[in-house]
Amino acid sequence: MNDPLPLAAGSPSWDWLIQDDRVHRTIYTDPSIFAREMNNIFAATWVYLLHESELPEPGDFRRAWMGTRELIVTRDEARALHVFANRCSHRGATVCREPGGKASSFTCPYHGWKYDNRGQLFGIPGKTAYGAEFKARDMHLARPAQVASYKGFVFATLNPDAPPLETHLGAAAPFLDEWIEHQGGADNIMVGGAQRFHLECNWKMVFDNAGDGYHVPFSHQSLLQMTNARYGGGDMSYFADADRSRMKLYALGNGHTVIDQRPDMYGNSAWEQQRPQPGREVFEAHVRATVADADAKRVLESAVGAGMNLNIFPNLLLIGNQIQVVQPLNAGGTTMHWHATRRRDADDALNTMRMRTQEDFPIMGEMDDAGNFEECHRGLVNFPEDEWIDISRHHETGQDVADEEGRIVGPVTSELHLRAYYAQWKRLMAAEPTLRASKSRIAR
Q: Would you list the DSSP string of 207-228?
């Protein structure tokens, strides 16, 4: 068996590892490939960190990640956002060991070096022990080469040559705008806490599934059967015959894709297709008693998911009304963060109903997916002689076609999603990017 190590001299090329209709198992299992991903993908391209609404007040902070690189994101007294490494400039200890909170400064527990909430060094115990050469160095906390926000979504990269964030988003931006509009606009989104899943699998197992409309009637069979038996259908029932559905899968460039469920989900009434949740009848009665008849459907459907799985390569997934963030840990370990959202303009009844909807799939369906991710990874590790992973569904049927806007559109059951994002993955992995962090003083 040829078990390639692509960083070694004479090893197989990226074109051999990533082919048009199949990929080699080692891209999931090889630690050297994972290490290169952390530089070439999670440092060299734009990576999602958090939503601005998670830091609503001056002094707020939260930890975030660019792959395995740990960062602190803060909001200072002037309400400006700052992003810097969670690594003391002295001996490398982490200066923040809480997931989030409020702080005007960070003190390294090892030797007491102090940094303000912009990442600037301002206090060294026994400073007289340091001379002129030390004082000429930049000893502030390291910052990514670029940080940018798109309508509240904060991204960063260590690549000073990376194109602007809007260029990276490209054709995904209009879908992101539509997702934002479903939440009532950019200023209306409030991102709250998260359900977190630790998975014993490679991070790409999660991303593989994000654009997979093929698995639903099989992986989620028990959920669909229960819903149909008890309620005569409901949310996701249109996946039971997905090949004949009106749903589409779009490849949007730069590794981004979207499953657009809206033609079936919103074809009649997305609200009426929802699975029952606690308080549903009371909420509907509340809406019909407090909202004009002409607006009732719109308000009810604002409690329902946005009807798309929008996948922003490499780590941001917008599923329903939730923001899912993929955090790689190592070649065989991943954390998924499912963040719930609320609407600033909504009353407690609507936001409570949205929360019931957002609890529904992660609790009742994500366990199916998580089990499959781990078992896929276990199979790749346990039987290495079977080297290839097939991603050829609809590759040869002629059904993946360009639309009038130049996007590739395929059936929702196509594996176009994998073929599209692996093309970007291969391009980035074959590159030799410049990675840079800044430690210079920030002007007030």
A: HHHHT--SSHHHHTHHHHHHHH
81: burial class by Cβ within 10 Å (0-12, 13-18, 19+)? middle
CA angle 301, 304, 306 (to 5 degrees): 100
**Mapping DSSP to helix (H, G, I), strand (E, B) and coil, where does residue 16 land?**
helix
Q: Work out the percent of the chain whose per-residue pLDDT is above 90.
A: 76
End-to-end CA distance of the chain: 59
Q: d(Cα 281, Cα 356) in Å, to the nearest integer?
A: 13
How far apart are alpha carbons 254 and 423 in whole angstroms?
8
Q: Which domains does the chain have, with CATH numbers?
A: 47-150 (2.102.10.10), 170-430 (3.90.380.10)
CB 110 within 8 A of CB 91: yes
Q: How confident is the model at residue 2 (pLDDT cuts 50, 70, 90)?
A: very low
CA distance 412 to 416: 9
* Dist CA 285 CA 136 (whole Å): 68
Round the average pLDDT of the chain to a whole number and report it: 91
Listed in sequence order, the residues at least 6 apart from 172 whose beta carbon sits closer than 8 Å to its beta carbon are 252, 253, 254, 256, 258, 310, 312
Report, as an integer, the average pLDDT of 231-259: 81
**DSSP letters spanning 163-195:** PPHHHHHTTHHHHHHHHHHHTTSGGGEEEEEEE
What pLDDT was estimated at residue 214? 73
Instruction: Supply 345's token pair.
Output: 């303009």
Q: Using CA atoms, how far apart are residues 196 and 346, in angstroms rounded to an integer? A: 26
Q: Token digits for 46?
A: 């734009």
Entry pTM: 0.93
